[in-house]
Design goal:
Length: 175
């Protein structure tokens, strides 16, 4: 059974991202356009996060991603299809003790902007990042055996961060 674990931020997460990015670059070669470390493990000031490395991969053609299933499976990834988001290919690594989430999109997909805005906003607003990390820690204590309840309980807070991130982005680009 999957458990919700939240741990203190560690630079090891950046190292794990770098190691995994080398594996993914070798798999996707000419299909890969960009790769980003996203999610809470990418934000130093967060304080606490689930120790799962989220990776955003941008590819030339999302419809070609199934051609890469075999090498991804050999690398430990489990294909999960769109998993509720049209135009995405989603993979998990680590079964019940997940270590990585891989989100693959084409660059124009609106979710790519949201992932990057969320991350960048928290990096540039360490107090909000810390508040979010504390919320994650409290919710993990409250819902240690219920990942769905944990996700639902933080959904409104995440939406508020995303809204603030969009306003911040618009102000900084003069829009």
């Amino acid at each position: 059974m999957r458990q919700v674990q939240v741990k203190a931020w560690t630079p090891e997460w950046s190292t794990r991202y770098e190691a995994e990015s080398a594996i993914l670059q070798a798999i996707f070669t000419d299909q890969l356009l960009a790769m980003h470390h996203i999610g809470s493990t990418s934000v130093l000031a967060i304080g606490y996060a689930k120790p799962i490395i989220d990776i955003l991969l941008l590819v030339r053609q999302i419809d070609d991603v199934p051609l890469y299933y075999e090498p991804l499976i050999r690398a430990g990834y489990k294909p999960r299809g769109e998993n509720g988001i049209a135009g995405r290919e989603y993979f998990t690594k680590g079964d019940d003790q997940r270590t990585h989430h891989l989100h693959i999109y084409e660059p124009a997909h609106p979710q790519t902007i949201q992932h990057l805005l969320f991350r960048d906003y928290l990096i540039h607003h360490p107090q909000q990042a810390l508040q979010y990390g504390e919320l994650k820690r409290r919710l993990a204590d409250q819902f240690p055996h219920d990942p769905a309840a944990y996700q639902q309980a933080k959904a409104d807070h995440c939406q508020n961060i995303l809204s603030d991130a969009q306003q911040w982005h618009n102000m900084n680009r003069g829009g």
